[in-house]
Task: inverse folding
């Protein structure tokens, strides 16, 4: 089952953001994310949509390309601090 969690929308700069497609992997935990290119670095609006998906599913699997380790760390540090 494919679930479009955040359909295309205009971000705060007026640029259209493509759909973020979230497909749950199990009923309770995990989701596959497609339609997003993390290598480009998501803007704030897209990052918020990804973060909301993380809060809901707790484990995210991104299907887009390779993300070098340094970019993985940069992406992870962008989130909220507990």
Result:
């Amino acid at each position: 089952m494919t679930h479009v969690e955040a359909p295309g929308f205009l971000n705060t700069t007026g640029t259209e953001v493509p759909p973020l497609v979230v497909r749950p992997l199990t009923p309770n935990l995990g989701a596959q994310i497609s339609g997003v290119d993390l290598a480009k670095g998501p803007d704030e609006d897209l990052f918020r949509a990804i973060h909301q998906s993380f809060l809901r599913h707790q484990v995210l699997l991104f299907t887009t390309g390779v993300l070098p380790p340094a970019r993985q760390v940069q992406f992870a540090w962008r989130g909220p601090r507990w």
In short: The beta strands are 3-6, 9-10, 16-17, 20-24, 31-34, 60-62. Residues 4-10 have pLDDT under 50 and may be disordered. The chain is about 30% helix and 25% strand.
